[in-house]
Amino acid sequence: MTIANALQLELDEATCVLSAAYAPTGENDTLPTWDTLVAAVQARGWPATVLDQISAIVFIEQCRDTAGPVEACIGEVRNGTFELEVAEDRMSAQLTLRAPKGGQPVGESDLLAGLQAHGIVHGLIPEALRQALERGACEALEIARGTLPEAGEPARFESLLDALKTRLSEDDENAIIDYRNLGDLTLVSAGTPLMRRIPATPGQPGTNVLGGPVAPPAVADPPFAPKLNGVEVDPEDPGLLRAAIAGSPMLVQHGATVNSLVEVPAVDLSSGNIDFEGTLRVKGDITAGMHVRVSGDVVVNGTIEAAHVEAGGNVTVNGGIIGSAEGVADSRGGSRMARIVSGGSVKARFIDNAQVRAEKNVAAEREIRQSTVTAGETITVGPPGSQQGVITGGTAHAYKSVHAGTLGSMAGIPTVVRAGLNPHANAKRAALETRARELEEEKAKLEKLILFLHNNPAKNVNNMSERARQTHAKISADLVELQAEDARLAKELQPLETAMIVASRRFFGGVTLHLGVKVTEFLEDQVGGKAVLEQGELAIR
């Protein structure tokens, strides 16, 4: 009997399982082999790939070892299949296509029906579908992509005074400071336009692959800041901020303030210490031992001696700042060092035996000697474009750059110059942490009050519950702003790659440079240059 008669193939349509049956009839029967199995499936119009090699070999072995009939599964015949998966955010869809095994491949109509069943109607990629069908197989191929929403524009606050724009602009760390733009006192009269608020522009929604809308990201649309001193919103134009009083304007976050101006002949025993919210102009000197604290600018026509001056704005001294040597005390045991703290910039003809701290820039026309000077942006000594200006002794620390003609002295006086790390960041972060703790405590108390009023409605008099909820929401928003500010300060504790220290004429021995976390010390005099960070290392150019 021939093998064709003894060997029969049967396909289970329900399970797609292919079985073979061998029924020998006599001694001359031809035993099945791999080739005869391949020939048998090909005779049925199937490719050899429908055979499972291990199952087929087991069947052949059984036919050789068994005298009677043998029947076993030897493979399967399957049509092509596909799977569609929509991403969790519904912004893309992927296709996995499996080739058939002896059956029919997936057709275009099958895919279209599957897409419709899954609701995938937007962002189809026809070329990807065509290539997948041509290849007959693919794995997690993106075949649909949603349309992303377009972000809107947040509200903007634009200054309407050129002088204020100059004061608050971000200085280029490579630029030389123009002294004419530092410390100028800007005065405005009542009704002067100060700032224009441009409302936020909402974004455009997108569309996911299921045809659903995708909301654009929320855009910040804050109003003018509350409790702005000396200003008012125009009653006929809510986007315009005007001065309510005459005085000196200053830009703040989301607004501006106007500080009243006080002018005195001198700050000495006849005037007493000065502490007020406004701007101070001194025709003469601020003498030793006096204390001045103002929220605005301090402009001194004379000199500041060993006094303590704290200003929320700029400090401009037409003369110099001169204290006594560190450690020298007055008759009451107090230090005779001059101490200057500025929320803006400090400008003076010279700085001698002083402690100066500025949030922005410090500029001296001639010299900084035996002083401790810190600036949130730059320190510059000497006229613009010249090789004049000397920093001798003490410490000079700026975030962005330090510029001078000469660093150190022929006598080798120890002089430390730092740049690249914000000198104020740690103190500011500590203050933020303290404020955050206070707000968290207040928030917890409000939550207890809200819960108590909820459980005891009779106690909720004068709409106390609603007022507590509003205060709770305001504190929550304040905490979010504190977290954002803390994150910004954390970045400023990392070395600034663009920071530099410039001595255009000479580095003297005894000078130590700190650029970021890198340090170099000059044991001998050296021609001037620019210290920068190159590939993380300190280099002199």
UniProtKB/TrEMBL annotation:
InterPro entries from the UniProt entry: FapA, FapA_b_solenoid, FapA_N
Keyword annotations: Coiled coil
Every Flagellar Assembly Protein A N-terminal region domain range: 82-253
Coiled-coil features, chain-numbered ranges: 422-485
Pfam families, per database record: FapA, FapA_N
Keyword Coiled coil belongs to the record: yes
Alphabetized PANTHER family for the sequence: POLYMERASE-RELATED, RNA-BINDING PROTEIN KHPB N-TERMINAL DOMAIN-CONTAINING PROTEIN
Protein name per its UniProtKB record: Flagellar Assembly Protein A N-terminal region domain-containing protein
Organism: Bordetella pertussis (strain ATCC 9797 / DSM 5571 / CCUG 30873 / LMG 14455 / NCTC 10739 / 18323)
